[in-house]
User: What shape does this take?
Amino acid sequence: MPSTDPRDLELLMIEKLDGMKTHQWVYLLLRNNLMCGRIEPGIPLTIRGLAQILQVSPMPIREALHRLACEGAVEVKNNRRVIVPSMTSEKFRELCDLRILLETHAAEGALPYIKEQDIEILEQIDARIDDAIESDDVDNISLHNQAFHRRLYQVNPFQISVPLIESLWLQLGPFSRIAISKLEKVYLVDRHAEALDALKNRNLFELRRAIEADIRDGIASINTVEGIHDYFRGVA
Assistant: This one.
């Protein structure tokens, strides 16, 4: 399979903040694009090609890809090409089961620390998701959804699960994007609204149920997309 022409890869760019090292910026940028599925499964890339796109030397690209490979987000081949790993139905089910297990646990751990200002921030993020859905902004549907969950879980000052959860998001991101981009309507039931109500009422059972339902709705949406399992076999 030929490598991707750098001009054909449209990455979602992020600002390089003052004091940020180049390898940190490259890592965050590539990670962001994997999270929202901009880099599709099975498409080969090269270190040189990515360096050309981002106008940096190969070294920070290599460092970023090494970190992402450790997180299971990409595979670096011997010929220096990198790909988003192909998916199998079995791996997909395992990743989704782990999401439910870890994220309901993380939500439960966050509940005792929730304050009114946290709920207000979560409501603002949820409004951004609605705006992204309305404007058919596939990138931000994914990224704002992840921001909602991340913000909730990080309310717990003692949590250690977010990096594990984000590793799952990285691996599922490309396949979630395929589904979102092909669905005529997403999020028929606003599970985030249910989660917010549970937070306001300090209802642990309803919070766990809302988070699990939110994840299961996403899984169901992916499974209903015609041809999605071709991507699992790596042939699409």
Remarks:
- The longest strand covers residues 81-83.
- The first helix runs from residue 22 to 35.
- The mean pLDDT is 86.
